[in-house]
Specification:
Elements: E1 2-7, E2 10-15, H1 29-40, H2 46-58, H3 60-77, H4 88-100
Helix pairs in contact: 1-2, 1-3, 2-3
Length: 101
């Protein structure tokens, strides 16, 4: 930005540096958590991916949620699935129903 300064009868020019904001707009935790699934699958536009990466670098809560989701995806994708004991589902269902009440 160039600014004109007047001193007496003479005109002087000065160059003023105006800091500009980063082109990357910050996003909040709600937006990050809403997009984490697509982030894990690398199914986001580059700008949004960069916003999420920057947010995760400074937000411990969202990083913990991301790490948990990533671990679940890894476990579910593992061919060595945990085999549940006989009758587990039959015992679990009533507990879930009573907990929901």
């Amino acid at each position: 930005m160039i600014v004109t300064l007047r001193r007496g009868w003479s005109i002087e020019w000065a160059v003023v540096f105006v800091p500009h904001k980063s082109a990357v707009i910050e996003i909040d935790c709600y937006q990050v958590l809403r997009e984490l699934s697509d982030y894990l699958e690398a199914d986001l536009p580059p700008e949004l991916r960069l916003q999420i990466e920057r947010h995760l670098n400074k937000c411990n809560h969202c990083t913990a949620v991301y790490d948990g989701m990533r671990n679940i995806v890894r476990l579910l994708g593992d061919e060595k699935a945990i085999e549940l004991p006989e009758g587990f589902s039959r015992r679990l269902h009533p507990r879930l129903v009573s907990a929901a009440r």
